[in-house]
Amino acid sequence: MQWSMQELFVIPDCRVVTVEPVGAAGLHVAAQVKHSHACCPSCQRPSQSVHSRYHRHPADLPSLGNAVHINLLVRRFHCRNPICPRRTFAEPVPELLSPRARRTRRLVGAQGRVGVTCGGEAGARLLRRLGMPTSADTVLRLVRALPLPEYAPPSIDTAATEAPARISQDPEVAKARDLVHRFAELIGRAARPGKGIGKDVQQEACKVST
Lowest-confidence range among 20-29, 131-140, 201-210? Predict the structure, then answer.
C-alpha cells in the first residue's frame, strides 16, 4: 500500500508541496493554504484579491525521529469593503498556528505536556532526544501558558451522611454518652456552694467509673 505525501504529512487547512531532508536529522516541509479565499478579520467579508505573499517557518512535530520545520506560503489579501478600516490582511490558519507563532499549536501542546511531567531542564533534554528541541526556559513558559485543569468539587458520599445516625445507634457510643452525662451531674452536685464532695457523690462516682 502506497501513501501519498498529503497522508504522510497532515497539516490542517494546508496542502503539502514538497518534503526535503535538511542535515542528518531534519526535514523541511513546503506547504501552502489550500483555500482560494480568506475572510477579513475586521468585517468578515471574503476576499480573493491577493495583495502579496510571504513565508512563515514554524517548527512542527517530528517525523520518524526528524525535527520538522514547515515552510508555509502565506498570502495577504486586499479587503474590498469600502467602510472597513483594514486595507489588507494575512490569511489565518487558526488550527495550525497562532498569530506570529514560531511553533505549531500541536507542537506547543506536546512540549508543554512534557514540561508538566518532567520539568524544565529534564523536559528540555527529553525533547531534544525526541526531535522537538527547545530550551528549558521555553518549556517552563509553555507550562505556565497551559490552561489549568478543571476542578470538580468533592461529592458528598451517601454513607457519610448516614454515618451520624449509625453512630448514635451504637450501644457502646450510647453507654459512653450516658457516662459523660452522669459524671456531669456528679460534678454539678459537688460544685454547689457551701458543700463539698460528700460520701454519696464519691460512691456514685465509683459506680459510674466501673
Answer: 201-210
* pLDDT, mean of residues 126-140: 92
Max intra-chain CA distance, the chain? 109
What stretches of the chain adopt beta strand conformation (E)? 14-21, 26-33, 38-39, 46-47, 50-56, 59-63, 66-78, 88-90
- What per-residue confidence (pLDDT) applies to 95? 92
Phi-psi region of 149 (alpha: psi -120 to 50; beta: other; left: phi over 0): beta
Q: Which among 128, 122, 95 has a CA at the least distance from the CA of 109?
A: 95
- Which pLDDT value is given to residue 47? 94
Alpha-carbon distance 167 to 178, whole Å?
14
| Cell numbers found for residue 3 | 501513501
Dist CA 62 CA 172 (whole Å): 67
Rounded Cα gap, residues 157 and 132, in angstroms = 45
How far is C-alpha 125 from the chain's CA centre?
22
CB count in 10 Å sphere of residue 130:
15
Q: How far, in Å, CA of 183 to CA of 168, rounded?
A: 20
**Cα(101)–Cα(97) distance, integer angstroms:** 6
